[in-house]
Amino acid sequence: MEGRLANMWRLTVNESKFVETALQSELRVDGRGLYDYRKLTIKFGKEYGSSEVQLGQTHVMGFVTAQLVQPYKDRPNEGSLSIFTEFSPMADPSFEPGRPGESAVELGRIIDRGLRESRAVDTESLCVLAGKMVWSVRIDLHILDNGGNLVDAANIAALAALVTFRRPDCTVGGENGQEVIIHPPEEREPLPLIIHHLPIAFTFGFFNKGNIVVMDPTYVEEAVMCGRMTVTVNANGDICAIQKPGEEGVSHSVILHCMRLASSRAAATTKIIREEVEAYNRERSLQKVKRHPTLAKSVVSGPTVVVKEEHRKSSDQEKAAEISREHVERLKLSSEELRSTKVEEVAASPTNFKGGPSKWDPYSEAMDVDSLKASLASKGDSVTKSSSKKTTNGSGNAEKDAEMSVEEVTGDLGKKDTVEATKQNDGEMTLKDAVKPKKKRKNKNN
Amino acid sequence: MEYVNPEGLRLDGRRFNEMRQIVAEVGVVSKADGSAVFEMGNTKVIAAVYGPREIQNKSLQKKNDHALVLCEYSMAQFSTGDRRRQKFDRRSTELSLVIRQTMEACILTELLPHSQIDIFLQVLQADGGTRSACINAATLALADAGIPMRDLAVSCSAGYLNSTPLLDLNYVEDSAGGTDVTVGILPKLDKVTLLQMDAKLPMETFETVFALASEGCKAIAERIREVLQENTKQLEYRRAA
Are B78 and B17 within 8 A, CB to CB? Predict the structure, then answer.
């Protein structure tokens, strides 16, 4: 890492001699074995596709976002995956803000090779309209603390973020089948990316002219070591990428030894990542978003996005609108703009009535029990449909069902608040939602 | 697409363990302390070495009693089929770092403290294997500049297509989606300095491809040695001792 003279931290001769001598007796300064990894913690954020990884002192955050773009000319059927690294100056005094330095670029490219060239992420499934619109997935890695071995930590952050990322569902429609309609998460469940395997990076440090090999070097060890190598493997025994960028020469046997070490550990690390992701997904599904049929659609044709909103009105809705308005004030929820605008629009000017199969329109926030019961009686068959679908909802919903008739709105509010803290659409979960017949759309583009 | 036909011939008529033709010339840039042109088939690279000279930017110096080695890799915009958009992109930055560290391993930097050695690499024609050609060209240029090295750094690439390990891939074979293993070794010491691989490979296949690339490196080392000896003979002749 280059840095201005004042920012450079140099290792003292004492320290480097100490580390080297200790290694010759197979002792590491922090007490680990030569091939032991530091403690790995993976956490996830509020948004889909955000992860936070801590490997000992090293702290990295990963964010995944996706956007519809035009594909590359030589690959009209494939989406793209790009990785951007940000070496924040708070991580290390020698990191400078602005353009990424050599090591930042190298880190990005190592992870990029591991993910893209080994076809871990299926790019063909990211194609929406061949030659015109594909999803471009962007991974941003922010280094928050450099405690050594940034590559491994950043790699795991990228993988964790990719596995938990959900992209909006979209369908091809419009007059000539050329328009792409993106469905917001309230309308259709967002889809995960198709990931074939998880390529995990393992970094080795070489000491003593390549005779001593160490895994997961710390910051101090990195300053002392004379060479390094990163091997990216997956749990199936494939080697996805290797990067040994020059520096000290090592013998063939040492290289093969390192690769075998990496292969043997791939399965364990993959398991850790998958377990964390499973736990997170389970937690997430307990706070599921309620699907609302055709509330708002974004129609994409070319680069500009036009958001159209359609209103549906029925006699119940007008009643619901009044009650909901006062409920909104009563509840005093921190309004997501969508919800508040919905209520206003519903009250203001209903334009199109989109007829269709009888659907309970959950446009308003809450209903009182009597009107609910009345509507229940009138929509007998739709309720039976919904009951079969209710089992697919999270357990939180089932709870609500049971308590519905007894509970006050304020009681519901308490639950709603906690739920709301984690997801922006949870405000939709009201007493009404428990009753409304849900038409859970299958996530298929047709 | 078939990259190796049933008789074992590749697209350009080579066999799986045959390298492309190597043409190397030393002393092409008159202003530089050392320079070389290295061609591997259609890949043509020119290297120029300036040094040892006074350090221009003291902040870059990390090791006090060692020479500072700087390397710049760039592809000429006319080197590829379509005109390249920018000369310095992320790939060039990474390759500059990688090649610099490879050469640093073989230069005896402790003999030239407080000095700077600049290696400039320019790809004139790119047809696969540019980083290998660059390392070989840099070695020749450094030898031409008289910079002490502990060994010749040589590099070669190999791949795996149609279930066959192939030595020295050209651009078409490289972009086929198979793996590309680039190996840089110090032949006399038998040590591996550079090792880069992309795309998936099972472990056993990797060992075969790795071994093939190392063999290729040794063959290139022989060739480079011949070129340097020929050059020395020429210098001696011109000196008319």
Answer: no
CA separation for the pair B192, A76 (Å, rounded): 39
Cβ of B85 under 8 Å from any chain A Cβ?
Answer: no
Give how far B10 is from chain A: nearest CA, Å: 23
Helix (H) or strand (E) holding A107: helix A102-112
pTM of the model: 0.74
**A252 contacts chain B (CB < 8 A):** yes
Mean pLDDT (whole number) for B137-163: 94
Q: Distance from B240 to chain A by nearest Cα, in Å?
A: 40
Residue pLDDT, tens place only, A293-309: 555 444 444 444 434 44
- Cα A34 to Cα A51: distance, rounded to the nearest angstrom: 28
Question: Is the predicted pLDDT of residue A430 greater than 80, yes or no?
Answer: no
The rounded distance, in Å, linking the Cα atoms of A135 and A167 is 9
CA distance B232 to chain A (A): 28
Mean pLDDT value across residues A306-319: 44
From the list A15, A37, A16, A35, the residue with the least C-alpha distance to A26 is: A35
Interface of B with A in 151-190 (CB under 8 A): 181, 184-186, 189-190
pLDDT for A383 equals: 44
Q: What digits encode the pLDDT tens for the residues A337-352?
A: 444 444 444 444 444 4
Alpha carbon A88 to its chain centroid, in Å, reads 21
Nearest residue in B to A106, CA atom: B94
